């Protein structure tokens, strides 16, 4: 689920939860009750942890949760000299952030220009004979779609800068508060899968492990970018080395294996629960006449 970055992590978590509940309601109407599986990468892994802690019904409904490259660094660690340099430098811009019409107008202009630019790029790429030498039509379509998706992330920059100019200097809840929240309120019945990569300075899976009471731990070759699997965006297939971004397919296989076992466990639990209902002995009904004392 896409979400907008905010210094208060509870805000995007609430938006994600609202969208998920709405989507699930519609799916249930069409397909009936479906198993719920949670997965998140980096900040997305943190969002899943918050969802399973802040919304108990969400966590209890999860048959399993795959938390990949969990990241919950404070702003001061994630961005060098953030509080010392960035916050003071952007503070003078605070009066400008009060004019929401100006900010929205600027964002709309940027979005419009970006869409026109990518529309033109598609036309030029499809018309160029050189394009066919390095990638087929499907790769071209996918590459441009991925590039536009990455470019759309810049839409969030004005809002983030506005928050900083208004004094935001740290994420909330803090890492310590999140760990306490996990210890007190995490509601996933099946042990989560915690995945990290061998070359990843942003990963904080070890901190997550300290807060979890039960989990499955896997370390894979790769980097923080391996889950993005953006191979077609970076290099055409004819020029692509075999080990680019390491083994993204291995990550997919590990998650698939975990969810398969988690769903099997869910099936067993449901069958056992149904059997208990069938075998539950009936309570004897007392005879009203027999219980009435003779006079």
UniProtKB/TrEMBL annotation:
**PANTHER family documented for this protein:** OS04G0405600 PROTEIN
Superkingdom of the source?
Eukaryota
SUPFAM superfamilies reported for this sequence: alpha/beta-Hydrolases
State what protein this is by name.
AB hydrolase-1 domain-containing protein
Q: Where is this region: Disordered?
A: 276-295
Q: Which organism is it from?
A: Coccolithus braarudii
């Amino acid at each position: 689920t896409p979400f907008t970055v905010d210094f208060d992590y509870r805000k995007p978590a609430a938006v994600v939860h609202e969208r998920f509940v709405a989507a699930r309601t519609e799916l249930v109407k069409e397909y009936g009750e479906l198993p719920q599986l949670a997965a998140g990468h980096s900040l997305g892994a943190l969002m899943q942890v918050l969802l399973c802690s802040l919304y108990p019904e969400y966590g209890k409904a999860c048959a399993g949760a795959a938390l990949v490259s969990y990241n919950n660094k404070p702003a001061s660690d994630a961005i060098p000299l953030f509080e010392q340099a960035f916050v003071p430098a952007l503070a003078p811009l605070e009066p400008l952030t009060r004019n929401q019409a100006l900010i929205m107008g600027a964002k709309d202009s940027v979005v419009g220009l970006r869409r026109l630019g990518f529309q033109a790029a598609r036309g030029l790429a499809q018309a160029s004979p050189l394009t066919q030498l390095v990638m087929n039509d499907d790769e071209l379509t996918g590459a441009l779609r991925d590039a536009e998706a990455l470019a759309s992330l810049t839409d969030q920059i004005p809002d983030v800068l506005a928050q900083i100019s208004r004094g935001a200097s740290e994420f909330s809840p803090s890492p310590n508060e999140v760990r306490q929240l996990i210890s007190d309120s995490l509601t996933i019945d099946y042990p989560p899968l915690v995945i990290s990569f061998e070359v990843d300075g942003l990963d904080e899976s070890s901190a997550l492990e300290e807060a979890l009471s039960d989990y499955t731990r896997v370390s894979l070759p790769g980097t923080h970018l391996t889950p993005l699997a953006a191979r077609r965006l970076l290099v055409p297939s004819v020029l692509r080395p075999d080990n680019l971004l390491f083994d993204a397919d291995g990550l997919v296989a590990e998650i698939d294996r975990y969810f398969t076992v988690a769903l099997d466990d869910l099936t067993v639990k449901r069958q056992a629960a149904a059997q208990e209902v069938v075998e539950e002995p009936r309570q004897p009904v007392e005879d009203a006449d027999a219980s009435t004392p003779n006079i």
